[in-house]
Predict the structure.
Amino acid sequence: MLGRRIVLALAAAALVAAAGVGAQEDDLSRHPGFVDFNPRGVLTEDDLEIRISVKSPLIQLVAAAARAGDPELADVVDKLKAVEVHVYAVDEERREAVRQDISRRARDLGKSGWTEAIAIRVRGARGSVLMRLQDAPPTPQGAPQAARPVGLAAMYLDDKGEAVFVNIVGEIDAAQIGRLAAKFNLDVLSEAVEERRRSGDPE
Amino acid sequence: MPKRREREPSERGCAEYEALVEAYVDGELAAAESAGLESHLARCAPCAAELALARRVRDELRALPQVACPPAASRAALDYAAAHPPLGERLRRFRSRRLVWQPAVAMVLAAALGVAYYRLAGPPPPPPAYSSAEIAQAEAELKLAFAYLGEIGDKASDTIGTEVEQRVVVPLTRSITGMLLPEPPPNGGGGRDAR
């Protein structure tokens, strides 16, 4: 009897350990807020000018590091799982194909549960901002809550041929992200990031 | 019919004395037991007859010629006894062995499960270690990502123009704001449609 209990206990422990290891493998691509913006189709690696990819747990380390200096940034990024930005330079011959690609991606995302919040189709520019909402659990008192955004996807091709794809995965506070987006200056930050990349020195 | 002799309360019965007769004949009883038996035999004819029978059997057995057991037969008997221990002994050995092999089987089972899972899922990724430089770079890139998001909004506004902005963007922005930052529903309803 004792031996059988030992066998069962060890077998159960092995199974639990195996399940635990499996659970640790966080597959970002399965997250409802994830969008694959990797180069494909009309856009290739050669067109890629900037790629930003920051994922957990690095994001949480950034949040911890930024907590003292920029608490709003820390609050926003601490709840995120990944931030991806792809910036492409598109020559004039392929811009129409990229516009159609953006429209097609927006339609595909709409079919898979995303809500297109902004659609822009004017003067050679094409853009789409989509949100992925997820039902929130009811309050402890049992009252229903509004769905919460767990993903944001933004695509834009301007009339100069710059195509930008942004995917933010995780619990999103739209108001905070809006404030951050207005706060940071793109030109200054682009130069700073490029300078860091070249030097490899964060200081 | 002969009348049975009355027994004293403290006196042993014949059956108990008869059980001592064989040991008495072989000289294996203690002095006190021998004295008690002899006292009883002096008064009990049946038990005395038992003693006489035991002595006669012993004497006749001793008179028999000594026959040595063939070595092969002895070995065979010993081998058989070793191979076929009594049932109680076999049960005891089985229980003793079970305490050894069951944990061993459990460990082999656990190891097999671990190997199977390792092969199916691949090795677990090593815990990432980031330097302060990498964290600072990631922070700068996150800020740049938010700046790109703001740039999309700015470009959209610039491209669309005032008229379209007033007709499309402002209503949509209001709709988005309502969707993302919903007022607590008075009737407990969910979020609103953005479009």
